[in-house]
Design a protein that fits this description.
Elements lengths: L1 E2 L5 H8 L5 E4 L2 H13 L6 E4 L13 E7 L10 H10 L1 E13 L37 H6 L5 E3 H4 L3 H10 L4 H14 L9 E8 L1
Length: about 210
């Protein structure tokens, strides 16, 4: 399942790799665009589902082998995130994986999309003074990403001593090899996934 499929970029990649994919999004317009984008690549086996309320996913327990969350968890309303993470856990099989990529971290002094400084550190009780219907946009806590789906998850990054993380980041960002090697060296000292130190959180969790 692609949780928050947006316009379909990730599901197109997964389908091209041979996976059977279900794309879910709260916005009908995104689902329609994702369907059109997939059709351009001749991919007609993706299931596109508009689900306006992610607090109750319309799938059976232990239905999926993998759930992908790409740059989406930080946009879930704060008072709904725990329920939604529990739902993702409910529909994931034992031994299934959750891939988290691109979620903006609340640890960083600058909120990535808006480029506003220190907003990640501002208490939510001040949001009613912002004039925005949903308050200020913030990143998500790495702790919530790691443990919000349940305590019955292993961090695959740690299990393989961060080798997969290092290979993937060096493939995507070869010009930053020195920085990522240093980051992984630090992670091996403190035994925390390197994807929790970066502005955009990334990690892979596996359900026991």
């Amino acid at each position: 399942m692609e949780f928050g499929s947006n316009v379909g970029a990730s599901v197109i990649v997964y389908e091209s790799l041979g996976a059977r994919v279900v794309a879910v999004d709260i916005y009908d317009d995104y689902i329609n665009l994702a369907r059109l984008n997939a059709a351009q690549y001749g991919l007609n086996n993706i299931s596109f589902i508009h689900e306006p309320d992610m607090r109750k996913l319309l799938f059976a327990d232990k239905y999926f082998d993998l759930t992908n969350c790409n740059s989406v968890l930080e946009y879930v309303e704060f008072n709904k995130i725990n329920i939604i993470q529990s739902e993702i856990n409910r529909v994931l099989k034992s031994g299934g994986k959750i891939v988290i990529t691109g979620s903006r971290s609340r640890l960083w002094p600058r909120e990535v999309p808006s480029k506003k400084r220190l907003v990640n550190y501002r208490p939510r009780c001040f949001d009613r003074f912002t004039g925005l219907p949903n308050g200020l946009q913030r990143g998500i806590s790495p702790w919530l990403v790691r443990y919000g789906f349940g305590r019955n998850y292993n961090n695959i990054d740690i299990l393989d001593k961060f080798e997969s993380y290092l290979r993937s980041t060096l493939t995507i960002f070869p010009s930053k090899a020195t920085s990522f090697r240093a980051l992984v060296s630090l992670a091996r000292i403190v035994w925390i996934s390197p994807g929790f130190f970066t502005p955009n959180i990334s990690c892979m969790l596996q359900k026991e």
